[in-house]
Amino acid sequence: MSKHPQNLAGMIADARLVYVNPGINEQNFPFARPVAEVAQMRIFTHEDLGAQDPMTTAEIKVAADRQGWRPATLAELLVYAKDAWNGEDPVVALASAWLEPHAPPGYCSAPYLFKSEGRRLGLVCATSNTQQLKPHRFLFVRN
User: Fold this and answer.
1) Residue 1: its pLDDT value, please?
2) Distance of alpha carbon 141 from alpha carbon 143, whole angstroms
3) Which of 42, 66, 129, 142 lies most in the core, judged by the most C-beta atoms within 10 Å?
4) What is the C-alpha to C-alpha distance for residues 121 and 23, in angstroms, rounded to an integer?
5) What is the spatial distance between Cα 125 and Cα 86, in angstroms, rounded to a whole number?
6) Domains and CATH numbers, the chain
7) What is the mean pLDDT of the chain?
């Protein structure tokens, strides 16, 4: 039996966040099970994946998959936030993406943790804008 809440609202509450982007809800990010434990997770940077230059999200996913890792979901990002996040580094969950209404074609957002006057959960553009993603870390789960 999982030790985590059985819904997104409960997991957000457990993560002790001071802000959650209003786009992060069960309608836009349906809650998915099973949820991996922190011991099965790893943070990757562009450099960890062998890149000298920033990578696109597609390149990040392929490079991590070659090493036996899959992108984390929003629920797994919340487990990480509760149990292991340092409260500082921006961390993205690439397995969860939201195609925002009225957004330009090809534009999607992924949930990420960041610090700005406290622990926050926001949305970052998860398209091919590599410079925007350069400072971020990416949460992956062992396959």
Assistant:
1) 42
2) 6
3) 42
4) 10
5) 22
6) 8-29+40-142 (3.10.100)
7) 85
Residue 75, pLDDT > 70, answer: yes
* In the block, residue with structure tokens 């392929």: 62
Q: How far apart are the first and last CA of the chain?
A: 20
| Rg value, the chain, Cα | 14
Give me the residue label for tokens 């804008």: 129
Residue type present at position 58: A
Segment 4-53, tens digit of pLDDT: 888 999 999 999 998 998 889 999 888 877 899 999 999 999 889 887 77
* Size (the chain), residues: 143
Cα–Cα distance measured from residue 28 to residue 20, given in angstroms and rounded to the nearest whole number: 13
Beta strand 109-115 with 19-20 is: unpaired
Nearest partner of 88 among 39, 53, 135, 35, judged by Cα: 135
Which amino acid is located at 79 in the chain?
V
